Amino acid sequence: MDNARRAFCIVVLALFCCSCGGRSPGGGKAVTPVASSDQCLLVLAEDWDSTQGTLSLFERSWTGSWKAVGPGVPVFLGRKGLGWGRGLHPEQTEGPRKAEGDGRAPAGIFTLDSAFGRAPLTPQLKTFPFLVVNGQTICVDDGVSSRYNTVFQADQVPVRNWDSCENMLRSDARYDLGLLVGHNPPPVVPGGGSCIFMHLFSEPPLPTSGCTSMARPDMERLLRRLDTIKRPVLVQLPRAEYGRLKTVWGLP
Hints:
Layout: H1 3-18, E1 39-45, E2 52-60, E3 66-68, E4 73-76, E5 82-84, E6 105-117, E7 130-132, E8 137-140, E9 151-153, E10 165-167, E11 177-182, E12 197-200, E13 212-214, H2 216-225, E14 233-238, H3 239-249
Parallel strand pairs: 1-14, 5-6, 6-7, 12-13
Antiparallel strand pairs: 1-2, 2-3, 2-4, 6-11, 6-14, 8-9, 8-10, 11-12
């Protein structure tokens, strides 16, 4: 093989390796919790007890590296800060742990499967599912119910087996637009935390009961960017944990 052809092959091989983007060479299995995702919502807080943070959107380039899309935006977190939740990340033993009713937003890595709201955005989203909520749309927070931590239409269920739930059609504007966060996925752990969303600020803006809130213009820009094909995830961490896990987890 002459030198020119050898150099060409080396360049092609290098580009191929870069494009793997953190995926394993055999079978395409993810080697980090975010390796199969090409969109990441990264929320960083100063420490575990912080009730505010900054959200930044990242997308993976064709080389496999993360690139910021737009500026970071302010968010409110739980009134008690953050605690390790259940999601795509390995179980963690150091730091507080999220539990039902503790006022902490979940820390870790979580899927984002659907947007929701009182009415679809205009024009409607083209690349991300949207659930229109009504007076029958609820999320069950009763840990002994078989429907714990699920969103559904209450009038379509023949037997009610829960004692408490959240109504998704609220009298205020907080749930007028939002995202369902895949925290405590099946097999659901009773008491592990339920009904976790990204939603709009309260009025006036205040910490939440365990969700992540933001201004409506920021939410709208975010939803119009999200793409199901890119398998978006939410990563929420205190800065110290982010520094410790950024390389191990392949974070932006």
